[in-house]
């Protein structure tokens, strides 16, 4: 009896040793979010992608991830085998505006605008990274058809390339904001470089539209206390969003509609894009847009420019 028990124990021990060696561990590494990180940069580092991180960590709102908190990272076994859907060539400046680094949430003086009160019956659609000659005109056509106004956060280098589309945005009653010249992560640049990115864009916009923007949206939504101080000193209002459509990373309009419609509420600022790198498409954005506008109209929610929603000036006097 005793000896059979001993045999059983030995067998069990062997099993435990074998299984710990052979069976992969699926909940593996943890990552502590650093200042300047974005879901994009983290997913690149771990050779994974944003949707995987969002799912694994049950992230409800990718805008609200704070430095210092930990993320569960996907199984290391897949680390080098899965194709990284967030890999872009150096010519593609658009890995989408994937957040995450919001500064210390206790420092309320460093204001980032994300949404308005829910008692307003208004919503703002915002489109980043344009203008271009492909998607921006299509988006403008839809906005015109439904007679709604939106906000475009423009890249200086795109404004320089497409001055006519830039003029059209203004002429059709939409607002524009500064989204830097070349879409860098501003938290990685020094003060002088940040100034250059913003002011070169400002100069280009001024030449074409005779306006100086008051609103800025830092690329990827990355900010730091230092950056916010500098932007404040430069007299900009920093605009983020409360609903990320993740349109740049969507396969079809249903994905966008599911993501956006479920979160819609008065006061929301919704993030879309109006230009994207060569190998990606914004057709789902263009297709989803009429549905979103119609749904908002049905709910009696007015679509306004983001400055109007937030009671800010769009341009400097
Ligand atoms: Zn952008």
User: What's the CATH superfamily of the largest domain, by name?
Assistant: Glycoside hydrolase/deacetylase
Coarse shape: globular
- Gyration radius (Cα, Å) is 23 Å
Question: How many H/I helical runs?
Answer: 11
Structural class: alpha/beta
- Uncertain runs are 20-27, 76-101
The average pLDDT score comes to 82
Give the CA-CA distance, first to last residue.
93 Å
Helix content: 25-40%
Bound ligands: zinc ion
CATH topology of the largest domain: TIM Barrel
Q: Can you summarize the main beta sheet?
A: 6 strands, parallel
How much strand content do the residues show? 5-15%
The CATH architecture of the largest domain is Alpha-Beta Barrel
> What's the CATH C level of the largest domain?
Alpha Beta
User: What string, H for helix and E for strand, traces the elements in order?
Assistant: HEHHEEEHEHHEHEHEEHEHEH
The domain count comes to 2
Strand tally, please? 11
Q: What distinguishing features does this structure have?
A:
three-stranded parallel β-sheet; 11 strands; binds zinc ion; 317 residues; Membrane-bound Lytic Murein Transglycosylase D, Chain A; 11 helices; single chain; TIM Barrel
């Amino acid at each position: 009896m005793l000896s059979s028990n001993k045999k059983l124990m030995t067998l069990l021990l062997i099993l435990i040793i074998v299984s710990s060696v052979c069976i992969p561990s699926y909940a593996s590494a943890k990552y502590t979010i650093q200042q300047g990180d974005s879901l994009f940069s983290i997913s690149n580092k771990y050779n994974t992608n944003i949707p995987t991180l969002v799912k694994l960590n049950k992230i409800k709102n990718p805008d609200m991830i704070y430095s210092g908190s930990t993320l569960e990272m996907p199984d290391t076994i897949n680390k080098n085998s899965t194709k990284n859907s967030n890999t872009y060539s150096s010519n593609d400046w658009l890995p989408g505006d994937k957040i995450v680094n919001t500064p210390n949430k206790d420092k309320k003086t460093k204001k980032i605008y994300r949404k308005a009160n829910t008692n307003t019956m208004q919503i703002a659609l915002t489109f980043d990274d344009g203008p271009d000659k492909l998607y921006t005109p299509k988006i403008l056509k839809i906005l015109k058809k439904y007679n709604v106004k939106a906000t475009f956060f423009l890249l200086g280098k795109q404004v320089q390339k497409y001055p006519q589309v830039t003029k059209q945005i203004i002429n059709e009653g939409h607002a524009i904001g500064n989204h830097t010249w070349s879409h860098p992560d501003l938290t990685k640049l020094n003060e002088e470089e940040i100034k250059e990115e913003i002011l070169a864009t400002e100069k280009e916009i001024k030449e074409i539209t005779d306006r100086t923007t008051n609103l800025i949206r830092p690329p990827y939504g990355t900010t730091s206390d230092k950056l916010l101080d500098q932007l404040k000193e430069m007299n900009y209002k920093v605009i983020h969003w409360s609903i990320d459509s993740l349109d740049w990373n969507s396969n079809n309009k249903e994905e966008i509609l599911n993501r956006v419609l479920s979160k819609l509420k008065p006061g929301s600022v919704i993030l879309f894009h109006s230009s994207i790198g060569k190998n990606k498409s914004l057709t789902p954005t263009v297709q989803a847009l009429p549905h979103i506008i119609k749904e908002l109209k049905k709910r009696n929610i007015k679509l306004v420019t983001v400055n109007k929603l937030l009671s800010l000036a769009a341009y400097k006097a």
